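Help wanted!
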Amino acid sequence: MTKGEDTKLAILETGLDMASQVGLEAVTIGSLAGAIGMSKSGLFAHFQSKENLQIEILQFAAQDFNESVVVPALKTRAGIPRIKALVRNWIGWSAKLTGGCIFVSASTEFSDRPGKVREFLLHQQEQWVDCLRRIAASAVQAGDFRQDIDHEQFAFDLYSLLLGFHYYQKLLRDSETMRRQQAALDKLLADYR
Amino acid sequence: MTKGEDTKLAILETGLDMASQVGLEAVTIGSLAGAIGMSKSGLFAHFQSKENLQIEILQFAAQDFNESVVVPALKTRAGIPRIKALVRNWIGWSAKLTGGCIFVSASTEFSDRPGKVREFLLHQQEQWVDCLRRIAASAVQAGDFRQDIDHEQFAFDLYSLLLGFHYYQKLLRDSETMRRQQAALDKLLADYR
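Answered by r_m:
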């Protein structure tokens, strides 16, 4: 890795931390430059615009998410063990962030902000929902789920559960959240068996 | 209503619209004054600080939420009809907003922003979760739910479903969202019967 790439990686790491804590929209060339003690023009040279910076942070987060959540789950046996691994990895990933999950918060922040950032986020989120659909399909193939299940519905049900978990964990900070999530997941898996 | 109260109400309505579209944290004395064509000092006289303004917007939204979602549901027969009414009203309320649900977005925005706004939001959200718990308890009393259900778990399950609906509706804008939500709700109610 060149020194330039090294610097950029460090910038993106701090940018992701900031986005996790205060939201992606608050991460601007100016605010991030301040946070890392770099000049605005220095940061500008790396990203050229706020939108590019925000997209690169999302891209950086998506790559980390993929490596930490999706890839290890795909190495687990298809079916219920894979789904449980995906949920466990998702929870682990969102726990290691300094604040909330960037995709959850950006999804509400950018719902009504048309533009390149929303487009990138939407594309990334459609891939995520597609991943949930495919994991349901592979559970059918593995014989863990019934043949007649609706893969789309499973994606909706499982992501709803994760969003509920995130809300209870990050805002309410309810000590029972892990247990609630576990009970909801057991019920969900039983419904599709 | 006095002219002063009338003005304040109009300010809060615009503030809620702004918060729904760009998030509560972006609603400041300055940005809101610009949006309504009022002087910053004029707006300052009404609210004294950004935090107070944000809290009053949350309070205003909570009152509207209560009148539009909770009160009419409580007038419906306890049990499954009441739960269905609550969900229908929640969806109707979030649809009439110009952007996303202020409570959903503020919950991610203020997770990691300690202070008066977070405290107010948390208190309001605890009341909401308590409302979901009580609605489960009344469904048990009405004989629609089993005696041995966990009211807390029901609150977690139902709010997860609404968060999933909100995400699919506002970010993905998936045309099947209403049907997914309906299927998930039917399954949830069947689980507790």
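OP: Thanks! One thing I noticed: The first helix of chain B runs from residue 3 to 22.
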